[in-house]
């Protein structure tokens, strides 16, 4: 694993799961002052020489668009497990979204819908390849689910833009989900 991968994992942990461990002051949209994050990272031996340019490089090099920098602040787009809910802007999704999951969860999902589990939102993929890659983290031969996002949206399910490949929802009822 290279330094940029390690930095991405460290910042993911700080912004998505444990901002209090880094003494970060996060607003309700998940933004943290970049200077606070840098100061917290520089307090650790591994990252004592870290600069904002290093973080910008890590973001630009990453195929997974997990972070955003704007107006001297940084945030993670999605994946938060912190207790306070990060507010997202509601947005109309593409007609179809996908979700990759382990085969052992299929029956429960079809009966109960997609729940956020330990995260704040259900994560959905804009393309099948991304869904398959996500599903493979939990099962070598994952199930790919097709989400009728258009119908769900029209019937009141709220969706939120995560990034170019990830969409979020509070909950997706089973009636909008089909197995591929």
Report on this model:
The chain is an alpha+beta fold. Helix content is 31%, strand content 20%. It contains six helices and nine strands. The chain has helices at residues 3-17, 34-42, 52-61, 106-112, 128-135, 149-154, and strands at residues 32-33, 67-70, 73-76, 96-101, 122-125, 143-148, 159-161, 166-169, 177-179. The strands form three sheets. Strands 1-3-2 form a three-stranded antiparallel beta sheet. It is elongated, with a radius of gyration of 17 Å. It starts with a helix and ends with a strand. The relative contact order is 0.15. The model has no long low-confidence stretch (mean pLDDT 90).
From the structure above, extract its key features:
about 20% strand, alpha+beta, single chain, 3-stranded antiparallel sheet, 6 helices, about 30% helix, elongated
């Amino acid at each position: 694993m290279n330094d940029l991968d390690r930095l991405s994992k460290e910042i993911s942990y700080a912004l998505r799961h444990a901002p209090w461990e880094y003494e970060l002051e996060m607003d309700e949209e998940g933004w943290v002052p970049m200077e606070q994050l840098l100061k917290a990272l520089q307090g650790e031996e591994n990252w004592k020489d870290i600069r904002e340019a290093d973080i910008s490089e890590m973001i630009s090099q990453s195929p997974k668009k997990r972070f955003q920098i704007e107006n001297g602040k940084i945030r993670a787009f999605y994946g938060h497990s912190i207790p306070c809910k990060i507010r997202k802007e509601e947005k109309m999704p593409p007609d179809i979204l996908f979700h990759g999951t382990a085969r052992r969860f299929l029956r429960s999902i079809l009966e109960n819908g997609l729940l956020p589990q330990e995260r704040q939102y259900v994560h959905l993929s804009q393309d099948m390849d991304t869904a398959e890659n996500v599903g493979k983290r939990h099962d070598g031969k994952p199930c790919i689910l097709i989400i009728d996002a258009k119908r769900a949206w029209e019937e009141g399910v709220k969706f939120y833009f995560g990034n170019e490949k990830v969409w979020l929802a509070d909950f997706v009822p089973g009636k909008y989900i089909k197995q591929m």
